[in-house]
Design a protein that fits this description.
Blueprint: H1 5-8, E1 20-23, H2 39-43, H3 46-52, E2 56-59, E3 63-64, E4 76-80, H4 87-99, E5 103-108, H5 118-123, E6 137-138, E7 159-162, E8 167-170, H6 185-201, E9 205-208, H7 225-229, H8 232-235, H9 241-256, E10 259-263, H10 272-276, E11 285-287, E12 296-297, E13 300-301, H11 306-320, E14 327-328, H12 338-341, H13 350-361, E15 367-371, H14 392-402, H15 409-419, H16 456-461, H17 466-478, H18 481-485, E16 487-490, E17 498-505, E18 508-515, E19 521-524, E20 531-537, E21 550-553, E22 558-563
Parallel strand pairs: 1-2, 1-15, 2-5, 5-9, 9-10, 10-11, 14-15
Antiparallel strand pairs: 3-4, 6-8, 7-8, 12-13, 16-17, 17-18, 18-22, 19-21, 20-22
Helix pairs in contact: 6-9, 13-17
Bound molecules: 6-O-alpha-D-glucopyranosyl-D-fructose and calcium ion.
Calcium ion binds at residues 30-32, 34, 36, 38.
């Protein structure tokens, strides 16, 4: 029996009961001193992940790639990137994960490939090449401009003129990431085939990169001015996306009982149930952007309020409804660090606010996704100049916005310092040694100098560390079905500093109270809420007695109470 069948014997919705940890392999752990993280480096840290208590690893792309977008530009779907190791290293890592009781999901990037993929090399050779229709080619407009006004997310037009055949090809992202043509049944068959390849090796499912983008608008009409501000709402709303996902589910995912989490960039709350309602047979769950993009206008950082954040959580829970399921996440490889984004990364409150955010992350009616390093309370990096960044998105925006004079350099740098994806891509901080113990060589991206104070070695030794608080929260969630499946209810949506919600399942009811600010305050519980005892808090506990109706909340206090 292939390894894959192992997952098919699980309870059907096994993926609702797990805590998932995202590994960005380039930055996780370098085992051979070349400055780049690798698969053997991950294998070497499985005891650490087991101690944390996570159940599944989501591995960002590990496939062969020229790294135009750090692996989200795949050149060969069945080959491990040489810098990351060999297929034998992958098999050894997967076997070691299994021995640790950890499952693996891999990153399915099939809205586009690398322009160095063999399919594209063929497709661009001639207009009648058998692979021509694997991608989206169009004649330019009569005036010589691109076929329409679609923008790329990485600056400039989403069309690139290819001189060999005199046509343009579509790329929603970098020019080295041509979009696949999902209208072509051969493309769909190729994708099914590569999914089977990895499922038969024993992976437990897929994270699906910008999967709502795979169905393009018929005729590719120009975007209107307000659509241009958020092209993702148009790109994610093509007419056949649900047909394609139902095919994926029925052809592949269902027989392996594999999980799928779609990156639903551009999907609105109204549309979300169309992707996750189990009766429709599409995806297990989706990443929505309502929380992580609450304070963003494209590259610009804007302010946010706690009521707006709480409204986003309520919408996500409502969109999951009874038949769907959601994800809970505060950071990933595309976002700034959670504690710098939603907490307070000053020395006074960094640890406690990181624990408060961990409490928020791990008590939702959703599968929690924890991004590497957030379990340590790692912070944003002190970027200064554009040269400090690796990210193709930053360099593309710099060309489009700053070099054209549209935005002053200082203004752009001030925003991108807070929002850049590279904030989460600086290497893991394992110890206080050179380069934070990530590598014995020169790291591909600088390690945050605060690795001296913020690192795994120090925290494993400190029972009050951010790491151990994550470990306790994960252990509590595992033994408390109400924190997984219980109904979610915000008991005070308007409060400007306190986030308080209940989780109720059968006769078990819990109350989570988060003081998301540095001001201590008295908090009167709404009537009908009666505390039995505090179950877990982040070290600032108010030691409240049973039956208390008034809480004295310390700065950044996060407490889970059992209710009577
Ligand atoms: O919002 C974004 C674009 O401005 C980015 O955060 C990101 O491009 C978007 O969320 C889609 O992300 C996924 O697809 C990209 C890749 O660069 C991201 O790393 C990936 O998560 C293209 O594959
Ligand atoms: Ca390496």
């Amino acid at each position: 029996m292939s390894q894959a069948r192992a997952t098919s014997h699980r309870p059907t919705a096994w993926w609702k009961e797990v805590v998932i940890y995202q590994v960005y392999p380039r930055s996780f752990n370098d085992s051979n001193g070349d400055g780049v993280g690798d698969l053997n480096g991950i294998t070497a840290k499985l005891n650490y992940l087991k101690q944390l208590g996570i159940d599944v690893v989501w591995l960002s792309p590990h496939f062969d790639s020229p790294n135009a977008d750090n692996g989200y530009d795949i050149r060969d779907y069945r080959q491990v990137l040489a810098e990351f190791g060999t297929m034998a290293d992958f098999d050894q890592m997967l076997e070691a994960m299994r021995a640790h009781g950890i499952d693996l999901i891999v990153d399915l990037v099939v809205n586009h490939t690398s322009d160095e993929h063999a399919w594209f090399a063929e497709s661009r050779r001639s207009r009648d090449n058998p692979h021509r229709d694997y991608y989206i080619w169009r004649d330019g407009s009569p005036d010589g401009s691109p076929p329409n006004n679609y923008p790329s997310f990485f600056g400039g037009s989403a069309w690139e003129l290819d001189p060999t055949t005199g046509q343009y090809y579509l790329h929603y992202f970098d020019v080295k990431q041509p979009d696949l043509n999902w209208e072509n049944p051969k493309v769909r068959a190729e994708v099914f085939d590569l999914m089977r390849f990895w499922l038969d090796k024993g992976v437990a499912g897929f994270r699906m990169d910008v999967i709502p983008f795979i169905s393009k608008q018929p005729g590719l009409p120009d975007l209107t001015p307000d659509q241009l501000a958020h092209p993702e709402f148009v790109y994610s709303n093509g007419p056949r996306v649900h047909q394609y996902l139902q095919d994926l589910h029925h052809e592949i995912l269902r027989s392996y009982n594999a999980m799928s989490v779609g990156e639903a960039f551009g999907v609105t709350m109204e549309q979300a149930p169309l992707f996750t309602d189990a009766r429709r047979g599409e995806l297990s769950m989706i990443f929505q952007f309502d929380v992580v993009r609450l304070d963003r206008q494209n590259w610009r950082k804007t302010d946010w309020t706690l009521p707006a954040l709480k409204a986003a959580y309520a919408r996500i829970d409502q969109a999951a409804g009874l038949h769907g399921w959601a994800t809970s996440y505060l950071c990933n490889h595309d976002n700034p660090r959670a504690v710098s984004h939603f907490g307070d990364d000053s020395p006074a409150w960094r640890e406690r606010s990181a624990k408060a955010l961990a409490t928020l992350l791990l008590t939702q009616r959703a599968t929690p996704f924890l991004y590497q390093g957030d379990e340590l309370g790692m912070t944003n990096y002190p970027f200064r100049s554009v040269e400090d960044y690796d990210d193709v998105e930053v360099h593309g925006q710099w060309r489009e916005l700053v070099e054209t004079g549209r935005v002053p350099a200082a203004e752009y740098l001030d925003h991108v310092r807070q929002t850049s994806r590279d904030n989460a891509r600086t290497p893991m901080q394992w110890d206080s040694g050179p380069h934070g113990g990530f590598t014995t060589g020169r790291p591909w991206l600088a390690v945050n100098p605060n690795c001296v104070e913020i690192n795994a070695a120090a925290q494993l030794e400190d029972p009050d560390s951010v790491f151990h608080h994550h470990r306790r929260l994960i252990a509590l969630r595992r033994k408390t079905p109400a924190l997984v499946h219980g109904a979610y209810e915000d008991i005070d949506p308007k409060h400007l500093q306190v986030f308080a919600y209940t989780r109720a399942l059968a006769d078990e009811q819990y109350l989570v109270v988060l003081n998301l600010g540095a001001r201590p305050l008295q908090y009167a519980l709404p009537s009908g809420i009666s505390i039995e005892r505090a179950v877990l808090d982040n070290g600032s506990g108010d030691g409240v007695a049973a039956g208390a109706t008034l809480l004295r909340l310390a700065p950044w206090q996060a407490t889970i109470y059992k209710l009577e």
